[in-house]
Design brief:
homodimer; 383 residues; alpha/beta; Nitrilase/N-carbamoyl-D-aminoacid amidohydrolase; eight-stranded mixed β-sheet; five-stranded mixed β-sheet; 22% strand; globular
Chain lengths: 383, 383
């Protein structure tokens, strides 16, 4: 069985394990069982007609006396590229707009309040090629580009906050960035969050194209909760999640593009660890499918030149502060994951575990400040 | 099936999943398959006679041209208490010395270089009772206590570094600490590492007994590698792992005592996330069994008073920097996990993923310093 044929971990476990053991396995692996969310039949049939997976789950919180529940529905979209990578740029972008647009329409039927797309969602993940042309032509203004305008229309139409991760061109200085544009449900561009950590690994030659972000750890206060965006490789950096949390993030999105051979065993660990450690929800999104490029390229691994860099394994999921997580979308198909979460859970779990109060952050601030000095002497005891 | 009957996740998967799917499931859950380590027949039969589980695994690294392999064998010991909790204190301590001593002897047969015991290994985890007496009588001097002397003998006899987590009494001021004593294979006390973060959750009333550690993030340079100890609740704090790594830790031990209902779904996430994020090995150790106390106690959860606080689920394991992990020891039995690791893997994975170089620590030092000020203004964008 090849890695791009295996559809989903959860499905495999459910079809082979006896009931009693299955429930223990799921408890250990995924925590408290997430309830299924009833989705409207019109959404279910639209998803089926449009050939994408639709799944819904719910994270509940205890009823409090003084606060009403703060239930929010979040949508995660994962998808393949639509046209071949050598189709005209504008056709490729328009085809992605059209595909994602029809998925967002289904999200609206499901009552989604905040939707997030995958990393650089309007384009193939072409950084493996190290060619500047034609790929930099996919870059757009975060504030005024066609893709942002397209998202603003969707946002207004569906009263939905949209997180739109694109390749950004800042036109005045022609700098490129890997940027998530956050659009309010009013249709206004709330702001943007640039990728803080840029990989130099395997075919992820992104440092060839853009630099580390300069927008810090901005949190966006929306009508539906405080959200932040930790883009792709930033999920490997615990301090990045931490700092979004210190700025008040209740939901942190992690739009990504990553392939099986490189990162799959880490995928279920990192975003989930962040949800646990920071008493918040995290949403991990990965694209699916294999993207083929016309020019062959090498991967710095001594192997022959080739035209693709493996299978993007999807598996988008949501992790909760109580250590539980939703099942993932499939490893192989386009999908929309709808998750209802009661944000009251964040404070309830914080009051239970108290990581923020037991964190000793002042001491870490001092230690870290010493650590980064060129004359830092590590605290090593020798015999 | 109750939580204390379910023996092990890995065993369950192995006995029910078809071969092809099992290998995909294991790849996704556990990463690159860890090879089994051949252990000497005398050790296997001694473990069987002494009624504990013995498992061995190996993490290999690529052969380099300029550096020879740096292969180290680490032993993780998990065990039940031996005598009832109302037996005389000295009898309880002696029984634990004797039990762990016979397990260390088997570790020596397996060529273990560094062994780590579970948190406060000489005593029941009695902090649930909130009684000071008789439990504080288990506290000993880290430098000169009987337990340290016992470990020094073992260390010399077997040429083994020993990490011995105890309840420490600092006699001059009668302060108590939760402390790991690190004893060199020469028999010398190299130093100690006090628990940095103290829980206030459920039955873990440890803040009633001792305060946050004052030994910082010390790393111990031993003949077999640079080691550090992140005790129990410290594993929930990403900055704690991070700071041990910044001080040069190659292997971080996490001796713990934790129960199923509270933390089991987090168990496989946190130490493993740290190994990935910091390009090092982490060793998570949990005790096993259910401990009964004579006085009944309540748990602050509105339920009736009771005499135990649930099942310690064992499941000790080792996580590697490449995202893989060893299978765990059982959830139900005493056990010794022997893991051979080539420490060259740390640098190899660091050179591949480069988290330390892409970490932007100077910027985090500045941000964190601002964050901990009373006048900190979070970076929140509002509409």
């Amino acid at each position: 069985m090849s890695a791009c044929e295996f559809e989903s971990l959860e499905k495999c476990l459910e079809s082979h394990l006896p009931e009693a053991e299955l429930s223990e396995v799921k408890r250990i692996l995924f925590g408290k069982e997430t309830q299924k969310l009833d989705l409207p039949p019109c959404a279910v049939s639209a998803a089926s007609e449009r050939d994408f997976e639709l799944k819904g789950f719910m994270f509940d919180a205890a009823q409090e006396q003084l606060r009403p529940p703060r239930r929010v529905r979040v949508g995660l979209i994962q998808n393949r590229i639509v046209l071949p990578t050598d189709a005209p740029i504008l056709d490729q972008i328009n085809a992605m707009h059209s595909r994602v647009g029809e998925m967002v329409e289904v999200a609206a039927m499901c009552g989604v309040n905040i939707v997030c797309f995958q990393e650089t969602w309007t384009m193939p993940f072409a950084f493996c090629t190290r060619e500047k042309e034609p790929w930099t032509e996919f870059a757009e203004s975060a504030e005024e580009g066609n893709t942002t305008r397209f998202c603003q229309e969707l946002a207004k139409k569906y009263n939905m906050v949209i997180v739109s991760p694109i390749l950004e061109r800042e036109g005045l200085h022609n700098t490129l960035w890997n940027t998530a544009v956050v659009i309010s449900n009013s249709g206004r561009v709330l702001g943007k969050s640039r990728k803080n950590h840029i990989p130099r690994i395997g075919d992820f030659n992104e440092s060839t194209y853009y630099m580390e972000g300069d927008t810090g750890h901005t949190v966006f206060q929306t009508q539906f909760g405080n959200i932040a965006v930790n883009i792709c490789y930033g999920r490997h950096h615990p301090l990045n999640w931490f700092m979004y949390s210190m700025n008040g993030a209740e939901i942190i999105f992690n739009p990504s593009a990553t392939v099986g051979a490189l990162s799959e065993p880490m995928w279920s660990i990192e975003a989930r660890n962040a949800a646990i450690a920071h008493h918040c929800f995290t949403c991990a999104i990965n694209r699916v499918g294999t993207e083929h490029f016309k020019s062959e390229f090498t991967s710095g691994d001594g192997k022959k030149a080739h035209h693709d860099f493996g299978h993007f394994y999807g598996s988008s999921y949501v992790a909760a502060p109580d250590g539980s997580r939703s099942p993932g979308l499939s490893r192989t198909h386009d999908g929309l994951l709808v998750v209802e979460m009661d944000l009251n859970l964040n404070r309830q779990i914080s009051d239970k575990w108290s990581f923020k109060m037991t964190g000793r952050y002042s001491e870490y601030a001092e230690e870290l400040t010493k650590t980064v000095r060129p004359d830092f002497k590590p605290n090593i005891v020798k015999e």
